[in-house]
Write a structure and sequence with these properties.
Order of helices and strands: HHHEEHEHEHEEEEHEHEEEH
Number of domains: 3
Structural class: alpha/beta
Strand order of the largest sheet: 4-3-5-12-6
CATH architecture of the largest domain: 3-Layer(aba) Sandwich
Distance between the termini: 71 Å
Radius of gyration: 32 Å
Helix content: 40-55%
CATH superfamily of the largest domain: Periplasmic binding protein-like II
Largest sheet: 5 strands, mixed
CATH class of the largest domain: Alpha Beta
CATH topology of the largest domain: D-Maltodextrin-Binding Protein, domain 2
Shape: rod-shaped
Length: 290
Amino acid sequence: MIRKDANGIDYADVELVVALARGASIKAAARALGAHVATVYRRLGRIEQRLGGPLFERDDGRLFPNARAAPILEAAEALSERLHALDLTLAAADARLVGPLAVTTPDSLIGPVCRLVHAFQRAHPGVEISLTVSSAFADLGRREADVAIRPTRTPPETLLGRLVGGFDFRVYVARDAPAEGLGWITFDDSMLGAPSARWVAHRGQAEGSSCRVNSMAVAAEAAASGLGRAVLPEYLADARLRGVGQPIPELASELWVLSHPDLRASPRIRAFTAFATEHLRDGLIRPESG
């Protein structure tokens, strides 16, 4: 904390002298400072007493700064220039895109999102990205994350969003597995909010479940290992899997890049969401029918 010298001048004194010089009257300075006329008058008297003489010459009801006030006004001008330079420095730092950025995404997208983060940091090495695996939109509402990359057909209206594009779900099995005779890879109760999990749950009840998992990424690994049939988003399928039949129309979904409205002015958020939208749009995997 900066302490005031009892015999010196502080920032409030400088502000008062500047207001008087600009307004050329006690009343005008009082209006500018939001103070009472009597308060301004008393403060000026105390400053002049400390400094050993008047700071202004009075002529026809107007105040004109004298030689004693000149150093104060020069210091005020220098301070103003330094504050302006500081503003420019901070703006330039934002323009260079530096600082932390928290991103959250479900495990089914961790591969594409990691590639996205790598590409973004090559372009903007000053941004420090933390990546969290989560499927909850509440991450953004609680400000636990700055950006969420989510597959959904119904993004929350309370969030700002960029649509990457649509994708389909299909049934997948291991590349060398038969198309028939395999049980379904189903999901536990933690996943039943997802339409695809509910779709496969009905099939599993009717035709049998070979394995129960708690994430889409694990379902993909289980299918690739030959444990059964899995319903997966097409971007999650790799060379170890082959599609069976056609995409499932009722499970068609979309990929969104979402952020909190309070962060709309952040250069980092704007740059990342724009970059992520284009990068993911270009990199979406759309496997051919097997």
